[in-house]
What does this fold into?
Amino acid sequence: MLQSLRGFRDFYPENMVARRKMFNVMIDTVRRFGFREIDTPSLEGLELFKLKSGPDIVNETFSFVDKGGREVTLIPELTPSVARMIAARRKVLTFPQKWFSLSKMWRYEEPQSGRLREFYQLNVDIFGVDNIESDAEIIAVGAEIMKELGIENEIIIKISDRRLIEGILRCLGVENVEDALRVIDKREKISEEEFSRMMLEVGVREEFLDKLKSLLSIKKEFTKDAVNEVRNTLEEIFPVSSKRRDVQEMTPGFSLALQATEHLEKLCSYLSLYEVVPYCVLDLGLVRGLTYYTGIVFECFEKQGAFRAIFGGGRYDNLIELFGDAKVPAVGFAIGDAVLEQVMKKAGKWYSENLETDYFIAITNPDFYPLAVRIARNLRAKGFIVEMDLLKRNLEKQFKHADRLGTKHVIVIGEDELKEGKVTIKNMQTGAQEKVDLKSILEG
It folds into this structure.
């Protein structure tokens, strides 16, 4: 028997009932924050992702050479495509632009729990603003989606700033910072021995390795006091860099790290306005693997750590200028459907997969079919979901089929009732029946 490919999924009507509810909640939430829907091609030039997504993403693409000899790929993520769109119309757009999309993505990676080769992803981005207010709003949007889905008490949002770790690495004399950040991003997926070896390979000196590990292991409730503790720890570890408070006289690495702590401290204040701080954790080991991030980064996880990240994102201020002639700051995040569904099911918040039908029109005689069509058209025009029997079954089988469709009411067109100018309506939940005037259904 032919089956779907590994890492790909089939969704039957009952599956889509629940998934559509989940997607609608996500879309309704971002719209309330003023985000506008966009869409992108499913196929892009591979060069778009070679430019800035990083080698890990490029190696996972479903890419091929098309009939025109071009290297193309099914999109593995959306941010480069959206950045290209912003760059293309930068001169006519007014900023900020707040965009969202819900699209399919494809990555050729090993399928496992929460990781598939084809998946849906909600992308939410703010363009043209480089302040803390936009960072706070984008995190608040993600938290609000979790709340609307009923899982706000099941999650934590890890927050850091890429500049903090980048500054620390520069203080340690690491030259190939991007390679080091990619290794740090993989830390929880590899052994400590392998992590140490890889960090030495990218230029971290052995005498500094334990200090770096200690900093990367800092995980605290996201408060101003916690950020101050991090700043004090940096000054203890790098006393030469921090002797003078004049930022211009500090080493560039320490200055960058200090700016990051100041940004995080202010971000905490703004997130408190959204009442999001209770869900947040300061996690210095969080850097995110994509190379285009330039500032704040965040990821949302189920509290028990049973799944991969539910959503993740950050600030990427330098990406759009790669496709145009000007810098456009940006911040955003993406939610994948697979892990989100897992978390909702574990929390008992997954939506009912029962099919839903408002009315089923049953007929006792095939001659009544034209009348059934008239009734169905009238009810559908009012927005109701209406089913009819297409197999000329007897009344008992029609009722069984209506029950399988999750029908709320069955309208029975019977010979005796029609003589009275009426039809019978049965409430499938209570079993109650009543006769109503046919005219009221056709004209009401």
Q: What stands out?
A: The longest helix spans residues 252-273.
